[in-house]
Amino acid sequence: MDKLIKPHGSDSLNPLFVADDAKRAELQKEAEGLPKLLVCSQAAANAVMMGSGYFNPLTGFMNLADSLSVAEGMKTTGGLFWPVPIVNVVEDASAIKDAKRIALLDPNVDGNPVLAIQDVESIEEATDEQMQSMAEKIYATTSMEHPGVKAFLSVGKTFVAGPIQVLNYSYFATDFPETFRTAPQIREMIEKNGWQKVVAFQTRNPMHRAHEALVKIAMERTGADGSVIHMLLGKLKKGDIPADVRDGAIRKMVELYFEPNSAEITGYGFDMLYAGPREAVLHAVFRQNMGATHLIVGRDHAGVGDYYGPFDAQEIFHKEVPEGALELKIFEADHTAFSKSVGDVIMMREAPEGHKKEDFVFLSGTKVREMLSNGQDLPPEFARPEVAKILMSYYQSLPKE
After folding, report:
1. Cys-Cys with 303: which of 129, 240, 308, 340 at CB 3.0–4.6 Å?
2. Which of 14, 112, 193, 205 is catalytic?
3. Where along the chain do the CATH 3.40.50.620 domains lie?
4. What's the average model confidence in pLDDT over 299-304?
C-alpha cells in the first residue's frame, strides 16, 4: 500500500506529547520545582494541538518576530509556511523572569495542573501597534466585538517563546474519550481502514442533511475511500451547542445514514478562533498532518458575523497560499440544501435552470433553536428525525429565557 500523505513541513509526524510513561513521570516530578505560569485558554489549546501532532513541525511557542512574520505573510522567519501565530501570550511574566525552564499550568482544569514544560528562549513585549497589526492580519478586523480578536487582545502582550514537552491533553481526552484523537491516532485509523484518499469535514455544529450530503458529494467527486468528520471540542462562543450533544447527534446520523466503514467521527482539542480564511488554512495544515488528502471548505468557513465574504476562505487558497505549500487539496463547496423540485439535497450553485429560491428548504440557526425549544419537529428535508430528537431534548432541558 502507498504511504499516506506526508505531514506538513517534515517527513514524519513529531507530536510533542511525551509518550514514554517513565519520562513523563520524571518531567511531572521536575515540574513541581519549576517556576509556574498559568497560561490562557488559547495557549493551552495550542499546547494540546502541538502535543497531538496537529501543529507539526512546530516544536513550541513562536517568538515575537515569528508571530509578526506569520501574521504578515503566513511564514515564519525561517521560511516555514504557517497561517496563524502559535503563541503563549501573558499579561505578566514577572513570576518567570530569568527562568530558563518553566511549568505551564492549565487554566481549563480544576486545580490548574501542569500541562507542559517549556524551555524559555525569550520573553518579549509587543507594542500595542504590533498587537493591533497582528489582529488585523489574522482576523481582518480589530473590532473587540469579534470573539477571536477579543480573545487575542485581552490576554496580554508578553510573548513567552520556546520549545515545549506536553504532559497531557488537558480535559479533552478525559471529557471526550470516544471522540478526542491525536493526529497519529487518526493516521493509524486511516491505515487500518485501508483508506488512501480521505476527505476531512470540519464542524463545530451538529450535522443536518445538508452537511451529510456535502460529505457524501465530496467523497464521490474526489473518489475518496472514506471521510473523517473532525469536530472541534474546545471553547466556542455563547449559544453554540456543547460538544457532547453535538457528538451524540453526529454519531446517530453516521450510524443510520452512512455506508459502513465510510466515515469516522473524531475530535480535536482547540479553541475556535473564528478567523475565517486564515483559520481555514490552519484547518488544512492540521488535516494534512492527520492524514487527510482533502478538506471540505464551504461557504463562511470558520467565520462569524459579517466579517468575511461567503467564499473568502476558499479564495485565500488561490490568492495567498503559495504553490506547493500544502499537499492536501481543498474541496470547494457552496451551501447545500434540500430542493423540493429536485427532491434531494443539492449545492445551491448547481440548481437546475428555472429553480426558485423558495424551492430550497432552508432554516436559520435561530429558527432551528426556536422550533426545537418549543418541541416542534424540524422538517425531515432539513434534519434527520433521529438527530432532531437528540437536539430537541437538549434545547428543552435549558432554562427558559
Report:
1. 308
2. 205
3. 178-397
4. 92
Gap between the Cα atoms of 32 and 35, Å rounded: 8
Report phi then psi at 96, rounded to 5: -120, 15
pLDDT in the model for residue 100: 98
Question: Each residue of 353-387: pLDDT tens digit?
Answer: 999 999 999 998 889 989 999 999 999 999 999 99
- Beta carbons of 102 and 61 less than 8 angstroms apart: no
* DSSP conformational letter for 233: -
Q: How many beta carbons lie within 10 A of that of residue 178, not counting itself?
A: 12
Q: Is 101 an active-site residue?
A: no
21-173 CATH fold: Sulfate adenylyltransferase (3.10.400)
Cβ atoms of 153 and 279 within 8 Å: the answer is: no
Q: Which residues contact 168 (CB under 8 A, 6 or more apart)?
A: 17, 51, 113, 115
Q: Which of 24, 204, 251, 369 is catalytic?
A: 204
The model carries a pTM of 0.95
- The verdict on whether 374 is a catalytic residue reads no
Is a pLDDT exceeding 90 seen at residue 400?
no
